[in-house]
Amino acid sequence: VLVINLKEDYFNAHEGLANACGGNFASVRNQAENEAVVALMEEYRPEIDSGTNNCALWLGGKSGSSWEWNDGSAFSYTNWESDSLGSPGGFWSKYVAVRLKSYPVGKWVGFYGSPARKAVYRLPSNYAD
């Protein structure tokens, strides 16, 4: 089940918390999954919207020598902003976040560093907060 952690934190901290809950960051393997993430973000827009033009939440994508999802699923579907510095071959290519506004909603942007952001997790269906 997809959930949003509204606490702003660093990528590694969110990754550890998602794992402690028995899940991972959300991986996005196709357009339908991307649309599900965007729909969840829209549902929580008032809580997510920080009033800036750069509202982006962490997903589970990160790069070393190539992009990968932290749950081990194939990084075959992408939805990069056309001018994203984090897109493959871009200068900033370490972590993936999905945008809620400012750029086309649901487009991905890469970040080299790990600024504190909210995050999207995929948790087991039997998880109870």
UniProtKB/TrEMBL annotation:
Domain C-type lectin: from-to ranges: 22-108
Membrane-crossing segments per the record: none
Domain of life: Eukaryota
InterPro entries: C-type_lectin-like (IPR001304), C-type_lectin-like/link_sf (IPR016186), CTDL_fold (IPR016187)
Protein name stated in the entry: C-type lectin domain-containing protein
UniProt source species: Pseudictyota dubia
Organism taxonomic ancestry: Eukaryota, Sar, Stramenopiles, Ochrophyta, Bacillariophyta
